[in-house]
What does this fold into?
Amino acid sequence: MTSLLLLASCAARPPPPRVPDVQQGPPLGVLAGGEERLAPTTPRETLAVETSVVTPPPPPQRSAPTWSTIYALYFAPNTEGGCGRSKACHAAEMSDAGSSYAWLEQRGYIAGPRSPLVSTSNSCLRWFGGNMPPHGKPNPHAAEDLSAWAASGAPNN
It folds into this structure.
């Protein structure tokens, strides 16, 4: 009889509430793009954390070379262009930086930022698709320097 009483008393008591393994809560908020994110649904799930990507600033632009530098690197005697070497076609006109600038400007090749000297459709220079220097090769550094110089206004400096 004692065991029946114990069983009867156990049956009369309601079982303890069952706690779910994982509880879902209300939405935690809205993520980028309007997506709503609920509380984690499994113990191992973690919440998405929005992070912003920091883009480093671009490297500082180097200043444009001067006309004198361009002449010394690409047009003077003993350079790839060699426009000023003796017995060359343009020896008299391109013997130094000042006279070469004046000659090219007079011929319409130097005209500020839109100078035809650096145009891929109007330049005489092989570096931009022209035919000078004869038997020359593409030179990306020369093209870059001349383009930067022209973009700065193509000054005679």
Observations:
- The longest helix spans residues 140-151.
- Residues 3-8 have pLDDT under 50 and may be disordered.
